[in-house]
Structure formats: structure tokens, C-alpha cells
Design brief:
The chain is mainly α and about 270 residues long. The chain is built from 12 helices and 2 strands. Strands 1-2 form a two-stranded antiparallel sheet. Helix 2 packs antiparallel against helix 3, helix 4 runs parallel beside helix 7 and helix 7 runs parallel beside helix 12.
Length: about 270
């Protein structure tokens, strides 16, 4: 473990330096996401006001507000640009330089992103959780915060990030075949956003369709961590969904290893 850390620490450091160097870009990205949250809030607020009851598919308006902002926080924590990064390196030919280094191709992306995540989460997580709990307390009239739910939520986010990262690595290997991944990556982001509950909660879908989507890996990205934080999953149900996250993380890790062996044989460098 010490040897692995010594080898890959420079990549963690590079990720932190990249975020610090391009901090204006990072700030505008966060502001854009926050703006999207408020747009979603006003849309759902209008939907609930137009409804006939106080609940909608098991959600009250305060719960929906919490859900919206938790989705923003979770999406920021587990987000991965691995597919885009692989595609760009194939397109401009810089992948050739990475391939000659005596390190794991996948691990270099992972540790570089971890450096980015460490800096981002040190800045965002505490103030966002605190602000969210203050708002939830004001809305409901009582303190809803649970340390246990927060800790399990953070563990779930780690698993969700690993699923997302290795899924994106697998998707990024398509660039070895189709050469340019931008359009396919945009389509993938839209589909994953819907299937993960980032657009609407999965409980709003028809029952049979919702059950199918809950088994798929995408629900483990956003919906599962958010439901854990909100205290919806308890006991055996909680263990089941955490176990499902572990399964999908291991599945995509193994798949990424297999696809790497197959894909690298089809690599033809375009630039560099």
C-alpha cells in the first residue's frame, strides 16, 4: 500500500493543482450547477402547488427540496470526467505518452480525479450539509440531522464514485474504436442523469419500471446515496442497496480491466 501511494501520489497532487490553477472555471461550474438546482426547485414548487395533495409519490415539498439539493451535492461528489479524458487523449494522441509510463492506465486517471475531489469536497461538503440542515430544520420545525445517516451516505458516495469512474473508463474505451467521443458522451450523460434519479426521483416512475431501474447500476450513483441520507433506507434494505453498490463497483472494475486488454489492440493514434 505504501508503495502504491508513493507511485500515485504525484497524480493526486496534479489533480489538486489542476483544480487550484483553473479555479475560475471550477467556480463557474459550481455556480452553474447551483443555478440548475434553483431552477429545479421552482419547477417542483410549482408542480406541488398545482397538485391536489400535500404528498406526491411519497414526497412532500420539504422532502423534494432536500432531494434536489442533495442530488446537486451528490452529483458533484461522484462526478467523473474519465470518459471525456480518455476520449481527448485518443483524439489528440497524448495517450501514447501515458502508455509508455510504467503505471496502470486506469489508476492514473483515478488518482488524478481523487486529487480534484479532495479539494472540491473540502470546500463544498461541510457548508452545503450545514446549510441544507438549517433549511430543513426551518421548514420542518425540528432537527432532522442524523450522524449515522451522514456517515453511511459518505460511504455510499465513495462506492457511487467508484461505480461512476469505472463505468466512464469503460465508456471511454469506445474512443479507441469511434475516435471522437464528444457526441456519444453527451448522450451518455443525459441517459445516466435520467436513470440515476438526477432528473426526477425514481419513485415517480411506473412501479415495474422503477424496480428495474433500481437494480441497474445507475440508481446506485445518485438515488441510493440520497435516499440513505434522507433516512428512507433502513435495516436490511440499507444493507441490500449498499451491497448492490459494492457489486456494481466490482463489476465495472473487472470490466474495465477486460476492455482495456481488448481495446488497446485497436488503438490508432490520431495526433501527437
Amino acid at each position: 500500500m505504501k508503495r502504491i501511494f508513493k507511485i500515485y501520489f504525484p497524480f493526486i497532487n496534479a489533480g489538486m493543482q489542476e483544480t487550484a490553477t483553473y479555479r475560475v472555471n471550477w467556480v463557474f461550474y459550481i455556480l452553474g450547477s447551483v443555478l440548475g438546482c434553483f431552477v429545479s426547485y421552482f419547477i417542483w414548487h410549482a408542480v406541488f402547488l398545482s397538485g391536489s395533495g400535500e404528498t406526491m409519490n411519497g414526497f412532500t415539498l420539504p422532502q423534494m427540496i432536500v432531494y434536489i439539493f442533495l442530488i446537486f451535492l451528490t452529483s458533484t461528489m461522484i462526478g467523473s470526467d474519465a470518459a471525456w479524458a480518455v476520449g481527448e487523449e485518443v483524439r489528440d494522441g497524448s495517450i501514447a505518452m501515458r502508455l509508455i509510463k510504467p503505471v496502470s492506465y486506469n489508476a492514473t486517471f483515478l488518482f488524478q480525479e481523487l486529487g480534484n475531489k479532495l479539494l472540491t469536497e473540502m470546500i463544498l461538503v461541510v457548508p452545503l450539509i450545514a446549510g441544507l440542515e438549517i433549511v430543513r430544520t426551518l421548514i420542518t420545525g425540528s432537527l432532522q440531522f442524523s450522524v449515522f445517516n451522514l456517515l453511511i451516505y459518505l460511504c455510499s458516495c465513495v462506492l457511487a464514485y467508484l461505480i461512476n469512474f469505472f463505468f466512464n473508463i469503460c465508456f471511454g474505451f469506445l474512443a479507441f474504436v469511434i475516435k471522437y467521443l464528444w457526441g456519444a458522451n453527451m448522450m451518455k450523460n443525459c441517459i445516466v442523469g435520467f436513470l440515476s434519479g438526477a432528473i426526477i426521483p425514481l419513485s415517480f416512475l411506473p412501479e415495474t419500471l422503477g424496480r428495474i431501474f433500481m437494480i441497474l447500476p445507475f440508481a446506485s450513483l445518485n438515488y441510493t446515496p440520497v435516499m440513505i441520507y434522507m433516512g428512507v433506507y433502513q435495516g436490511t434494505e440499507l444493507l441490500y442497496y449498499l451491497g448492490l453498490q459494492v457489486f456494481w463497483a466490482l463489476f465495472f472494475f473487472g470490466l474495465s480491466k477486460l476492455l482495456w486488454v481488448v481495446s488497446v489492440r485497436r488503438l490508432s493514434v490520431q495526433g501527437g
